[in-house]
Amino acid sequence: MDQEGIAKSATASTLRLRAGVRTAAWHGFSAVVEGEAILRVGPKDYNDTVNGRAAFPVVADPSDILLNQAYVRWQPARQLEVIGGRHAINFDNQRWVGSVDWRQNDQTLDAVRIGIVPAAGTRIDYAYSWRVNRVFGKDSPQGIWPDSDIHLLRGSVTLAPFGTLIAYGYWLDIPAAPALSSRTLGGRLTGEQPLSDGLRIHYAAEYARQSDLSINPRDFAHDYLLLEPGIGIGPVTIRVGYERLEGDGITALQTPLATLHAFNGWTDRFLTTPPSGLRDLYADVQWRIGSLFTSTPATLRFQLHDFNATHGGADYGREVGAWLTVPVTRQISAAFKLSHYEADAFATDTTKSWFSVEARF
Question: What is the mean pLDDT of residues 5-24?
Answer without folding.
Answer: 96
